[in-house]
UniProtKB/TrEMBL annotation:
It comes from Rhodococcus opacus (Nocardia opaca). The chain crosses the membrane at residues 20-39, 45-69, 109-132, 138-158, 165-184, 204-224, 359-383, 395-422, 476-494. Keywords: Membrane, Transmembrane, Transmembrane helix. This is Tripartite tricarboxylate transporter permease. PANTHER family: TRICARBOXYLIC TRANSPORT PROTEIN. Residues 20-442 form the DUF112 domain.
Amino acid sequence: MDQLPLLFEGFAQALTPMNLLWVLIGALLGTAVGVLPGLGSSMAVALLLPVTFSLEPTAAFIMFAGIYFGGLFGDSTSGILLNTPGNSSAIASTFEGHRMARSGRAAKALATAAIGAFIGGMIATTMVVFFAPTLVRLATVFGPAEYFALAIFAFLAISAVVSESVIRGLAALGIGLALALVGIDGPSGTARFTLGMPQLFDGISVVVITVGLLALGEVFYVCTRIHRDPVATRTPSGGRARLTLADFRRALPAWLRGTAFGAPFGLIPAGGSEVPTFMAYGTEKHLAKRSNDTEFGTTGSIRGLAAPEAAANATAGTAMGALLALGLPTSATAAIMLAAFQQYGMQPGPLLFERSGDLVWTLLASLFIGLVILVMINMPFAGVWAKLLTIPRHYLYAGITVFSMLGIYAISSSVIDLWLLVGIGLIGVIMRRYNIPLAPVLIAVILGPMAETELRRALAVSEGSLGILVDSPITITLYLVLATALAVSGVQHLRHRAQKVR
């Protein structure tokens, strides 16, 4: 247990008035930037990176700890309140979180997110401190075939198992894969579905698709229902920013399940937090069906928000461990953090613990402190954030539209992206009109390129033999679990259809 004395030394360095001030400033700045639609946590770290260069290394990385988790909470805040997640890690939290906000429980949703972020991040950071070498070894067993199996598992689990209708779920998956195919094919250099437009050679940005489907699609849909559905234009109350004992009991198992999903994925290169958050959301939706939870998909389920929120922060916590122990950035935010280390002449990896041990353990200690400070800040301010919903709806939706357009244009400076945003927003309206789920589109857009790349790599290694796709215990297990889940889901769908006929 050499880690404990080293961690205590890190706390001794971090728990100074000046360092605590840097964590506080980082948490506030990270949340403020992350909450702006179209920016998000990775943009928060990127924008604030130059600010830290004037600080000495320990203070800079302590401030980054606050920015790191503050940005993640900001992602969820904008998703819950405005249906515009700041980053893809908050997409799954948006589904039930925004429903809770619309039903007058915005402050409770933000409180659930804050506690979930704290629990997921705290458990994951503890695992990094004590089990980093063991956890990192698990990540090394994933090859191209395993990544492809994981993507297929996510595709079909979200589309067929989670969705109300298998056909609608697969249709949504097809829409997402079609959007993901736009651009230059990497291995061959062939342009696909670009209509001869150079602006589409890089594909359609995930941010454009996410903001278009969730934010602009919601704005357009409300506009189409403004005279038919007066309730849609009513401003709900923000509610109270506290969880009752019953709420806590319902959310706690979901927080723990979400953490269990998220922690391993932070160690997987290019794994990201999208898969565990959607898997956590899907698990809660499946459990809600079994327990007849009528809030799920209607007024918003606290469990459907708690699980993906804990999963996202657990992934972020172990991603920091992978960065420090292996020098391996497993997310965009971690990649920016790697650039920060290099700016100070340090290379994360096994030797970092020997050469800069004091800095590493101070950073790990500051991650714990940053999580505590975030809860202390955001629990009282949840009600304040929720006041955004008291803005008259015509002003609020106009503001969402303006921020969405400005955010997309700021990222790419491309008018084509603005037209794409409007077009995808109209697709979002049609999908809402015919009850086609949004989650499969987003998971296909995010994981589609990875699935294609890993499939090609696997087939290249095996010289075209398909046997490599089912040639390891991990792939066989994933496919067996998926087949079982599909079979169970099919039986349940048939039973529901038979009950409706009766």
